[in-house]
Amino acid sequence: MSNYSPTSSSYETAPTSPSETPYNAENRNTTTGENDVLDWRSLQQLQLSIALAQVERVANQLQASLNTTTRELDRQMTELHHDMEVILSLRKEDLKRDQRRRNQTLLFCVLVVLTAILLSWVLGHRGKELLELLDIE
After folding, report:
1. Which residues does residue 26 pair with via DSSP β-bridges, in sequence order?
2. Is 37 within 8 Å of 11 (Cβ atoms)?
3. Region (Disordered): which ranges (predicted)?
4. I need a labelling partner for 46 at 20 to 30 A (CA). Which of 13, 81, 128, 130 fits?
């Protein structure tokens, strides 16, 4: 660094855009009159820290949102499970009721057939006696 001089710094060049002003410009300290030059590495570290903080904030928001969504989905799944159990029990009751109706219908048909058989036997074998008892000629 033999050709070093405080006036031959690349920081003396004009910034190319307003957003580069804090990174390239010399800042004159008004109390001491010295030039303060911003170190690009510490600025880069600051930018990285800010970006990391923003990413962590977004990640925390997403985590909270995920937790809320998971709880809501669990609640809805529990509700659906309960509803399905209610529907299943109602269908079982309907099946039992239908089975009872079928059984009653079958019993009625069997009774009608047995009554018809009994009536035809009675009329076939004891028809005349029955007609005399009823006084029908």
Report:
1. 37
2. yes
3. 1-34
4. 13
| DSSP-assigned states of every residue in 30-81 | TTT-PEEE--HHHHHHHHHHHHHHHHHHHHHHHHHHHHHHHHHHHHHHHHHH
Backbone angles phi, psi at 136, to 5 degrees: -115, 130
Closest CA to 38 of 46, 3, 136: 46
Please report, rounded to a whole number, the percentage of residues in the chain having pLDDT higher than 70: 71
Q: Which two tokens stand for residue 71?
A: 């709880």
Calpha distance 75→117 (Å, rounded) = 63
Give the Cα separation of 129 and 117 in Å (integer): 18
> Rounded to whole angstroms, what are the CA distances from 48 to 20, 43, 45?
16, 9, 5
Predicted TM-score of the model (pTM) = 0.46
